[in-house]
Amino acid sequence: MKITAAQWRASPEPTARPALSAGDCGLLLLRLTFGLLMAAHGAQKLFGIFGGAGLSATADGFAALGYHPGTLFAVIGGASEFLGGLGLAVGLFTPLAAAAVIGVMINAMVTVTAEHGLWATDGGVEYNVSIAVAALTIAATGPGQLALDRPFRWGKGGWLEAALALFLGGIGAAIVLII
After folding, report:
1. pLDDT tens figures, 6-55
2. How many CA atoms lie within 13 A of 110 on its CB side?
3. Taking the CA of residue 23 as centre, how many other CA atoms within 13 Å lie in the half-sphere pointing to its CB?
C-alpha cells in the first residue's frame, strides 16, 4: 500500500510521552503506601519498633501457631515483610519483593485469618488479600518510571513477572506451611 504525500501530511504528529505520567505517580503512591506499611509491619516483628512486640514475643506467637522453631519463622516472616516491603517501596527487584509479600500474606491467610471469613472487622482475610493483590499488581504492571528497577527488563512488569511473583510467593508459602 502506497502512502501519498497528502496522506503523509495529514497524519497526526506523534505525541511525546510526558517525562512523568500520572500512572507513574500513581504507581509510586501505591508502592510507597503498601511497601512502607509492610516494611513497618516487619520492623514491628523484627525490631520491636512502631509499637511492635519485637522478635522474642513474635517468636512466641509463631510457636503458638505451630511454627517451630518460633524464632526462625518469626525472622523469616518479619524479614519477608520488611525486605519485601522496602523492595516494593523503592521498586527494587520488584517481582521478588512482591513474591515475599505474597508468600507472607498467603501464610497469614491460611494460619490466622481464613477461619474468620472475609471481613477484617471479623478478623478475616480482607486485609491480607488486599496486600497480596497490590503486590501482584505492582509485579504485573511494573514499578513505573520512579523505581530503581527501571533500567532492568523485570522493571517493565508483564505476565512473566506477575507469574514469577505469584509462583515464588505460593511455593515459599507452601514450603513454610509444610515444614
Report:
1. 665 565 555 565 688 999 999 999 999 999 999 999 999 999 999 999 99
2. 15
3. 9
Name the grid cell of 57. Answer: 514475643
Are 73 and 112 within 8 A, CB to CB? no
Alpha-carbon distance of 9 to 92, in angstroms, equals: 44
Alpha carbon distance 150, 20 (integer Å): 13
> Cα separations (Å) of 45 from 28, 52, 79, 122, 172?
25, 6, 9, 23, 19
- Which residues neighbour 122 within 8 Å (Cβ) at sequence distance 6 or greater? 116
The grid coordinates of residue 74 equal: 518469626
Instruction: Write down the residue that cell numbers 501505591 correspond to.
Output: 30
Please identify which residue in the block is written with the cell numbers 514450603: 175
Give the helix ranges, DSSP H, for 125-158: 126-141
